[in-house]
Design goal:
- By secondary structure, the chain is mainly α.
- The chain contains three helices and two strands; from the N terminus they run αββαα.
- The chain folds into two domains: 42 residues, no CATH class; 77 residues.
- The protein is 76% helix and 8% strand.
- The chain is elongated and about 75 Å long.
- 3% of the residues are buried.
Length: 120
Amino acid sequence: MKKILQIRNKVEYLFILGILSLSFNVDAGGVNVKLENPIGGTSTLAGFVTQILGVVKTIATPIAILAIIYSGFLFVKARGNPGELEKAKETLKWTLVGVAVLLAAELLSSVVEGTINSLK
């Protein structure tokens, strides 16, 4: 339950950041006020998510490569020891799961963006 609340809080935080990244036009008593995006570069939520995923991908790619190299090092270091081989297998498995989650997030983002654009 605690893990679900942590995930929910992170999703709410990203949603609020996305809303804050949008540009707004406000008509306040005849005075037209335009609130610009302080982050810059995008004026849509889809563009903001794409920017965030780009940053995450830029950071996660070298980390994933280093983790795969590290798991290979663990395989070599194990030298047939079943306990250490199991640790190396777990490291490689969870590294590949992380890479799959990263790719799935990018794919899901592009699918949702394409669906929203086709509905317009």
